[in-house]
Amino acid sequence: MSRKKMAIRRGDRVVVLSGKDKGKKGKVIQALPQQGRVKVEGVNIIKKHAKPTQKIPQGGIREMEAPLSVSKVMFLCPACHKPTRIAKKLSADGRWVRSCKKCGEVVDRG
């Protein structure tokens, strides 16, 4: 299976555009480019029944984030704090970097 490109990466802040969690903001904790999905902290919470194991001796019902489609979330610019699309720019040192479409600020870390 080929690797699909996604503009949203782990650690990005996003806002949910549709569904039961519409309008919620959170940090991407996992990006799944093969499926085109992301897990967002505190969004799309499901309950999973776990049997007792050595790691979890009491078992029980765990709450965890489920992946949601990357098309249902939009990047939140750290500079202008607005939901925006991501542009790719060539930086001065010849690397491609991600930038905000609204304010033009480079959003790549390090």
Overview of the molecule:
By secondary structure, the protein is an all-beta fold. The protein has two domains: 1-76, SH3 type barrels; 78-110. 0% of the residues lie in helices and 42% in strands. The protein contains no helices and ten strands. It has strands at residues 13-16, 25-32, 37-40, 45-50, 60-65, 68-69, 73-76, 83-84, 86-90, 96-100. The strands form three sheets. A six-stranded antiparallel sheet has the order 6-3-2-1-7-8, with no helix packed on it. A hairpin with a 4-residue loop joins strand 2 (25-32) and strand 3. The radius of gyration is 17 Å and the shape is elongated. The two termini are 30 Å apart. The relative contact order is 0.19.
Can you lay out the helices and strands and say which pair or pack?
Layout: E1 13-16, E2 25-32, E3 37-40, E4 45-50, E5 60-65, E6 68-69, E7 73-76, E8 83-84, E9 86-90, E10 96-100
Antiparallel strand pairs: 1-2, 1-7, 2-3, 3-6, 4-5, 7-8, 9-10
